[in-house]
């Protein structure tokens, strides 16, 4: 009984900010995809070391949580400070304020790189390409900032400006961008005329909450225009809500497998499309190095099931799934909770998906816009496939 009382007294002695550290440790401990990693990094000892630091404010707690998570070596399992958590939540709902750069970490050296610029954003207007390395933000070295703090440094009040130093294929470039609210408009569609054929064009720039409904409406509109084939454009789609990606796959596959997820216990959960499709004609899907995560799930399912060839360039290679977990003070955690495999069993983490047809460089900087040579090539290819079936 004395030991129990001592343990209770210790628990009661923890301050609110210390409890935040303990809660973060507990949430990761119960949900992280690779519990075997805990033994390697001495996970319980990391919690103790974090609590041994002076934790007198929320900022101290955040620093302690970040130092506790770093040894896991998973850049996607991370603390989201209040502003970061609010921004990520708003992104999944279809709005963002900032310069419109979607960032990731390069697998070989953990450098902060551009996955893709958002359509219509200051970054897109400045022609910042996928793969560009972000070196500094307002004079701050991104190697010291890390992924989340680099993203936070790029955000700010609409109308304010930020100076970004980049490395684009060995060429240094400095660009000043004005922050503003960017309406994501994640789904765009139009009818294309290629020779004697009428094609539909459907571009999805990210998977947010409105996307499944928007895609259904876009496909209904395109079907009403008697399209013969469909070009799905997933270029620079860095992912988002996996559930939204699965819903779109369900619209384009007829009862076929979509993806298999593997949780921390090694249990597999196959996801299957329902019978029926919203469009059952021929398809081609455009992908590039900015195609990542949920969009790779969709692309992999279409390719593996023979529903659509992929054309363009190798995809990004993010085969891990995260969940967002709120902490009690408006901050939150992103925690890797599962791996995924394409229907044929491919693990694309750090590998990406190879397209069936590689399109020539240079890659168009304005997907779907004027002078998009890749879209023209896809249109000609799909038209030729239609003629071959006549």
From TrEMBL:
Keywords linked to the UniProt accession: Cytoplasm, Hydrolase, Protease, Serine protease
A GO biological process held by the record: proteolysis
Membrane-crossing residue ranges in chain numbering: none
A cellular component annotation (GO) from this entry: outer membrane-bounded periplasmic space
Keyword Lipid metabolism assigned: no
One annotated GO molecular function: endopeptidase activity
Record-annotated PDZ domain positions: 85-169
Family designation: Belongs to the peptidase S41A family.
The protein, known as: Peptidase S41
Provenance organism: Cyanobium usitatum str. Tous
